[in-house]
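During the no-cost extension, the postdoctoral fellow (Dr. R.K.) reprocessed legacy sequence entries with the updated structure-token encoder. One reprocessed record is reproduced below for audit purposes.
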Amino acid sequence: MDDSKKLAILKAQSGHDILVIDNIEMHSKFNPVQEAYDQCLALRDKIKKQDHILILGIGLGYHIQQLEFKMREFHKNPVIYVVEPNEEVVKLAMKYHIVPQGNVKIFSGRSIDTYYQDQQFIDFLNDKPLIVPHNPSLNLEYTFFKKFLSHKSSRKLSDITKVLHPEIKPLFHRQSQHTTLNQFINDLGKKENLVQDDFKLLAFGELCNSLQLQEGQYEN
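Re-encoded structure tokens follow.
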């Protein structure tokens, strides 16, 4: 779906506003709040164990609101990240003030590489958040979310160094002759006399390889 799809707001039987995209309802036409509440109840045990949640799709935000309420029952400072590729949907959702403020951060746009070049987003993913899809959004944006969840990070040093921690980044500056992380780590491992910085870089390489193996674990 591109961002030129027709967006409309209708009234549910309960009187709540609901978002409709190309005649497809993003929430219950009867009671979107009750629908979101019931969905959260089904996730109660998982929410109790996890204070980080990644939500796929924003709609008008009823599911985000109810998830945040439920998370606060178990966690003092829950963290919720939302991924929504359609920026027009995000703008509309913000006008209705249903999405809680403060501990909810929204990422939008269709460039998947941009998400994975954001250090804050990468740190959040490293905490292995519970992934909760908003099913109507997931169905509309199936291709985007499939690519998002099966994303393989670039192994080019030029891309990796963009998101490195300040303590690690300077160690790579002298390695411009290497084009990929794998090439660099392989050559480094062949050195006879390793110094302290070399061990740091080897450890970093092992971490990257471990994280790459974890990527795609949600791919269908």
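The two ends are 19 Å apart (CA to CA). The first helix runs from residue 32 to 42. The remaining legacy entries will be reprocessed before the final report is submitted.
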